[in-house]
UniProtKB/TrEMBL annotation:
The keyword Signal applies. Residues 80-340 form the Alpha-carbonic anhydrase domain. It comes from the Eukaryota. Keywords: Lyase, Metal-binding, Signal, Zinc. Residues 100-128 are annotated as: Disordered. It comes from Polarella glacialis. Coiled coil: none annotated. Belongs to the alpha-carbonic anhydrase family. The keyword Transferase does not apply. This is carbonic anhydrase. The lineage of its organism: Eukaryota, Sar, Alveolata, Dinophyceae, Suessiales. Its EC number is 4.2.1.1. It catalyses: hydrogencarbonate + H(+) = CO2 + H2O.
Length: 342
């Protein structure tokens, strides 16, 4: 991986991101790398996107992998000339045309890109379709640092125990990962973060169940212990020691199994709509479910994940200034229904 280029990119665009300073970067960091500014005097972000062409990273691609591969959580190694700076200037569609959101014969529903800004007041039709989350859990999972986020992969650990049934189809939980801020919005509000549970049916059809992460109302509130355990289990990854690690449940926390479905309860309300992957190649045809109620996560736990995203030691993974959220895409009159976990 070309860490040097990424390092340059990371610094060259710092000036555009005042918030980065607020997020723990000292003025000394900027001064020490001032030569990066002159390397890209004009359009530093575009230059970075081009230089990133030379970067290899891994992505889970639903568009190219066959259903068996997806079910196994296989990741294809491919060139990834994208990052979380360049999309502000429209670079994603240049490399990955689907990200533009134009339908084509192969992808007639590509106008339905994700994420979206959900208008909570609707009008949304209630659905009678049943969503159920099943399974005992996984004794272990692979925690890994990928191109743009931290992922907890169950399929890679040989576990297909967790399944979601939706509209009569059974989907196996392949992996979950986190975005910060949230990608999906509710009435224009971005939450502090979002967890995506990525599922695959036996024919490869994807289902993503998203849950907002938000700060507790009072500072004394510890936030969700389960998410805390997940972030804690990846601390050595955050520190840049191991990019991938098999974590067993006994190490992970307070249960015999790792089971993110513990975070949901029967009766929890959700929105459902057609969408896409929120990262290149932005493949459409994804069943989306966004839980209405956020899970509360403490500020120190957000800080752990934020440090991970901002970590300069992440060689070859594009720095995102501590954020990895794609902006909302046009609704284009898509139908949103509301339901609840049965
Ligand atoms: C799957 O669940 C069964 C119990 O239903 C358990 O015995 C088994 O260890 C689990 N598999 C993994 C890989 O966690
Ligand atoms: C990152 O790259 C530097 C220099 O190329 C190397 O010393 C360091 O060990 C690398 N860190 C990781 C986590 O790979
Ligand atoms: C990193 O991974 C190696 C190989 O899997 C393992 O031996 C080592 O203990 C891990 N380090 C940490 C800090 O978990
Ligand atoms: C959405 O629907 C309205 C009314 O049916 C229509 O006027 C409008 O053009 C549609 N917008 C898009 C983007 O399809």
């Amino acid at each position: 991986m070309n860490g040097q280029f990424l390092h340059i990119c990371w610094v060259a665009t710092l000036s555009a991101w005042v918030s980065a300073v607020a997020n723990g970067l000292s003025p000394g960091d900027l001064a020490a790398d001032s030569e990066c500014e002159s390397s890209f005097p004009e359009s530093s972000e575009r230059a970075c996107a081009v230089s990133a062409l030379q970067t290899r990273a891994k992505v889970t691609s639903f568009s190219t992998a066959n259903s068996q591969d997806v079910a196994k959580g296989v990741e294809s190694e491919k060139l990834l000339p994208w990052n979380y700076h360049a999309f502000q200037q429209g670079d994603w569609p240049r490399m990955y045309p689907l990200c533009e959101g134009n339908p084509n014969p192969d992808h007639p529903n590509n106008q339905f890109q994700s994420p979206i800004d959900i208008p909570s007041r609707g009008p949304h039709e209630p659905t009678d379709e049943r969503l159920s989350l099943n399974g005992w859990g996984c004794t272990q999972a692979v925690f890994q640092l990928l191109h743009d986020y931290l992922e907890v992969n169950f399929a890679d650990a040989g576990c297909t125990n967790l399944t979601a049934t939706w509209k009569g189809t059974t989907y196996t939980l392949v992996q979950l990962h986190f975005h910060m801020m949230s990608e999906v919005q509710l009435d224009g509000k971005k939450f502090m973060g979002e967890m995506h549970m990525v599922h695959s049916a036996s024919d490869g059809s994807p289902l993503v169940i998203g849950t907002f992460l938000d700060l507790p109302q009072s500072a004394e509130d510890m936030g969700n212990g389960y998410v805390h355990d997940m972030f804690l289990a990846c601390t050595d990854i955050v520190n840049g020691l191991n990019l991938s690690r098999l974590v067993s449940a006994y190490e992970f926390g307070r249960y015999d199994v790792i089971n993110p479905y513990f975070l949901q309860r029967a009766g929890n309300k959700f929105y459902s709509y057609p969408g896409s992957l929120t990262t290149p190649p932005c493949t459409p045809g994804v069943e989306w479910i966004s839980m209405a109620e956020p899970i509360l996560v403490s500020q120190p736990d957000f800080d752990i994940y934020h440090a991970f995203l901002s970590n300069r030691l992440r060689n070859g993974t594009q720095n995102s200034y501590g954020f990895d959220d794609r902006p909302p895409q046009p609704l284009n009159n898509r139908t949103i229904v509301i339901g609840e976990i049965k």
